[in-house]
UniProtKB/TrEMBL annotation, chain A:
Principal EC category: oxidoreductase
NCBIfam families: dhsB (TIGR00384), PRK05950.1 (NF004616)
GO biological process: respiratory electron transport chain; tricarboxylic acid cycle
Protein name, per record: Fumarate reductase iron-sulfur subunit
TrEMBL record, chain B:
Note describing how the cofactor binds: Flavinylated by SdhE, about 5% flavinylation occurs in the absence of SdhE.
Domain FAD-dependent oxidoreductase 2 FAD-binding: start-end pairs: 7-400
Taxonomic placement: Bacteria, Bacillati, Actinomycetota, Actinomycetes, Kitasatosporales
Reaction it catalyzes: a quinone + succinate = fumarate + a quinol
UniProt binding sites for FAD: 12-17, 34-49, 221, 383, 399-400
Official protein name in the record: Succinate dehydrogenase flavoprotein subunit
Binding site for substrate: H242, T254, H353, R394
GO cellular component, one term: plasma membrane
Amino acid sequence: MSTATLDKLEAEAQTSHNIKVTFRVRRFNPEISDEATWQDFELEIDPKERVLDGLHKIKWDLDGSLTFRRSCAHGICGSDAMRINGKNRLACKTLIKDINPAKPITIEPIKGLTVLKDLVVDMEPFFQAYRDVMPFLITKGNEPTRERRQSAEDRERFDDTTKCILCAACTSSCPVFWNDGQYFGPAAIVNAHRFIFDSRDEAGEQRLEILNDKDGVWRCRTTFNCTDACPRGIEVTKAIQEVKRALITRRF
Amino acid sequence: MQIHKYDTVIVGAGGAGMRAAIEATKRSRTAVLTKLYPTRSHTGAAQGGMAAALANVEEDNWEWHTFDTIKGGDYLVDQDAAEILAKEAIDAVLDLEKMGLPFNRTPDGTIDQRRFGGHSRNHGEAPVRRACYAADRTGHMILQTLYQNCVKEGVEFFNEFYVLDQLITEVDGVKKSAGVVAYELATGELHIFQAKSVVYASGGTGKFFKVTSNAHTLTGDGQAACYRRGLPLEDMEFFQFHPTGIWRMGILLTEGARGEGGILRNKDGERFMEKYAPVMKDLASRDVVSRSIYTEIREGRGCGPEGDHVYLDLTHLPPEQLDAKLPDITEFARTYLGIEPYTDPIPIQPTAHYAMGGIPTNVQGEVLADNDTVVPGLYAAGEVACVSVHGANRLGTNSLLDINVFGRRAGIAAAEYAHRAEFVELPENPAELVEKQVENLRNSTGTERVAVLRKELQETMDANVMVFRTEQTIKTAVEKIAELRERYKNVSVQDKGKRFNTDLLEAIELGNLLDLAEVMAVSALARKESRGGHYREDYPNRDDVNFMRHTMAYRETDASGKDSIRLDYKPVVQTRYQPMERKY
Ligand SMILES: Cc1cc2nc3c(=O)[nH]c(=O)nc-3n(C[C@H](O)[C@H](O)[C@H](O)COP(=O)(O)OP(=O)(O)OC[C@H]3O[C@@H](n4cnc5c(N)ncnc54)[C@H](O)[C@@H]3O)c2cc1C
Ligand code: SF4
Ligand code: FES
């Protein structure tokens, strides 16, 4: 029961390897000032810990007013998307050792949504765009008594887009969305894709019409920021392309 | 302060809350108050599956499922409730499929099923495939599907509203629910929600442990709000320790991994579960497996330099199977441990996972004020509640089931009650308690820090009331908790603002954890037997003569304002299954 990686992991865990890092955090609290500022925090932390652990260290030991959202701490609830060293990531899924801790680690709120306090942004416009694509199964006719049948291939067809945790990392990394918040944004399209390509759903046409809008899929300029940002590894750009293609061919 | 009026108010938007909301919204004017955005709820973290005897892949029936649930719960399960759970499971799964849930499929297109701990064919003969699943993301799919259907039904949500108090008014000598008090995170404003019915669906309380699979936000707020208003908490000593948490972090690796063929091994590579559970082996019930792991560790067969963990070995499974069936947990191992589950076994240890106890309810979800009196207008469902379908130990996949079956029942019952009932008058000064709590914390100049107290609490809980307990260790915990509760009075927060003051809310959450930890420890001390998740080394056997009964814990306050816990007991409902020794 031993492998090289495992031995290394177990040996390293025995001793503490704390290093010094600087968290450079974008602070904003309109109760105090209208200006956002940068604040540096010096921490001693094990580089195998998460950025979220670092933020907790600040909040719990140094400055209780530092404000951010979080819940699950393992990349499943979508609460803590933020810009870490200029890239959108989940703080709980980013290990300090992987983001060059020799230099100050910059942490900012995600872009394109109004900042309310520190790393907390207004998520309402994001969820509104999601709700606008009718993100629920629509079927016609009588309900079967048992489950609807679906082949394993048909199920596989939309598997990728079922993984979305609505963290907004994609939408808030999109330059089109930064320029114009009216654009539905990648996350809403991902969630429309999840139903358009579900063989059980019968409202694909309607959803495609919604996305055919001037603020819909055609605004996408295929910059791939969204795909790079997605912590669930969803091929976001590909999903958007598939929706575009379905709009042209009306086949899905 | 704002006052709102709704027929039905639901506290929590996890699986139980949203399942209730879908029913209640169709039938009554409903508001859902939730401290997290609905899709952030911890139901989304559930991985392995949801049990239902669909018999899609092999022979199965709900009666076998009922039996397994009762046996799994070490006979502390109320058997009438377990029967409802197992019977209604089938429709609960089919309903979710019709709502759009993307289950994994069998070759002929029906919902696929897999094995899970404690679920067996014909009363324990062999493991049965009963868990309906969507890869290792079943909870995520349930949460998303329910949220999608809430959007469809136009459910009204108040997001980032923390319910901090339950309002109760006595009418003609009967305690009735009048509504709740909520704190709005964005503004710091207090809101009174007057409602004919209130449904608690606010989830678990695992954050009083250090190594836990639970989210930071699982702090037992609902349990604490009811308990502080004199309502009982049932069976709080029963907490489940899941065998396979990531070593030192506690992040869960689903039992589905063993359902797919994963094996637990000690440092010699031995498949040690064969010794402890010859038939079910790695798929014995969770309390049995967790104790076996710690026995291996204590007897010097643990892994690593400190011998403090064992391995979950998936290396013999084909990579394609891992990718298709267990994609998320294998990614957790890669992300957080830097190891490759195709080739490396994964270091694991038991992790605090699930509260079997909670707010006592009957099978309609009505909350009980004592052993039989219902509190009119008050309901609870999901992990916050204790029906009790899980007894002393919950079977894997029975909680996702519980939240759907009893969430639905509570939502319907609450809305129907709202139709026939009148609004109950609010107590005078309804926000008083919360106002005081908030102001005291905001203005306190005390020297104690929330993070320090919480850490000490978690450490004492891990050390003293985890998998193995004795009179000695539990007493240590009781004393420590009393000390922490004293020190908590002297706690202060640094953020004095109104806007998004999570510093303040963490302090309030800690207060809830402390209250509930005390109830857990005191209930555990009094239960001088071993049953399911509650294992006393000084009383290693189950004692049906003295302890075949539910614990009911009440807070009592004496004239001088000092509070204490009074324990009472409630009989277990037994229908057709006589308690037997539990062997796997
Ligand atoms: C990692 C993990 C894996 C699991 N896997 C499985 C599995 O495979 N199968 C299975 O059957 N079970 C599983 N479980 C157990 C199961 O997932 C949970 O017991 C269940 O999802 C709980 O659902 P709930 O609706 O009761 O609570 P939650 O989903 O936790 O929701 C609680 C809700 O209450 C709200 N809330 C909390 N406090 C307040 C407050 N003060 N005011 C307002 N709102 C509040 C929150 O915002 C949230 O919306 C797992 C659990 C974990 C932790
Ligand atoms: S697609 Fe990915 S990045 Fe976008 S919201 Fe969903 S999970 Fe987040
Ligand atoms: S805290 Fe849940 S995704 Fe990071």
